[in-house]
Amino acid sequence: MRIEQLDYLAEVAKLGSFRRAAEELHISQPALSASVRSLERELGVDLLERGRHGATVSGSGRELLPHIRTVLDSVDRLRQAAGEQHRSIRMIRIGTVNAATVPLLTPAIRQFREIHHATQVEIIGAQPEEIHRAILSGSFDLGLVNYLEGDDMPPALETMTLLRGRPVVCMRPDSALASLTAVRVNDLHAEPLIVMRSGYLMHRFVHRLMQGQVPGFSYSTDGAEMGKLMVAEGLGITVLPDFSVIGDQLEQRGIITWRPIADDDTQVELVIHRLRSLRATRAVRDLHQIFVERARVYPGQRKPTAAAAG
Q1: What are the angstrom distances between the C-alpha of 245 and each of 109, 191, 280?
Q2: Residue 87: its pLDDT value, please?
Q3: What whole-number distance in Å separates Cα of residue 219 and Cα of residue 196?
Q4: Is the full-model pTM beyond 0.70?
Q5: What pLDDT does 152 receive?
Q6: Dihedral (Cα; 83, 68, 289, 309), 10-degree rounding
Q7: Alpha carbon distance 291, 162 (integer Å)
Q8: Which helix (H) or strand (E) holds 217?
Q9: Domains present along the chain, CATH in parentheses
Q10: In this structure, are residues 267 and 166 in contact, taking their beta carbons and an 8 Å threshold?
Q11: Which helix (H) or strand (E) holds 82?
């Protein structure tokens, strides 16, 4: 039994409709229905009576619903108390894909520490699936993950889009590709290509972009920061979201630069995840808001920040 299952049931009971509850919770109706069914099987009772005109609480559900609401209220109070009374020993853990961009992450942490002096912040690089699991299990408080346009997002997580951009080719200014206004797919064979390891979004994008062509993969690395350092050392070129390059210290100092990919309009989004079903502590809420505010003024943004469909 998970807390979000109780939360989902309470929302359906309040609204009398799976459709309306799904819209309110920002999850798909099938996912909501499956979660409630799983809870009913675990408890061994039908909590809802389903019909053409909606869902009503069953007799057994009416007996259990007050207990469910008591549990949710207690969890809410517990987390709020932990956030307010024990901020001095609180640690916030952020899971991030390594292409989530240092120029956004580091200023946000610095601003957060100005108002939460004693709160420790741990930043853990991980792959998207690892971040999703860790947030759901409570190991991570927040997650920064990249998605390609049209990718499905975890329904149990609250999702906010921070940045939108395009994949670009990152290179040294003295690269022959830097003389181009846009890099074509065939141009990617001109220099060794540094690719992200399997499991990262940019790995998937590059393989799709090459359309079966065999690139000269010389290196594989675990994230954008190492990829940019390898580019700076003249080891090759790499493909990253533009928001991971624009504003980077190496780019500002003229050590690396970037060019768009010709005839490609793929959109990449950097989102911030947190668990939907439980109220976050004050420190987590503050850090989440700082990320949102920082993203609005992030260098090179061409579209405003908006909530993503969960």
Answers
A1: 19, 19, 31
A2: 44
A3: 9
A4: no
A5: 87
A6: 160
A7: 7
A8: strand 217-221
A9: 3-85 (1.10.10.10), 87-162+268-296 (3.40.190.10), 167-260 (3.40.190.10)
A10: yes
A11: helix 59-85
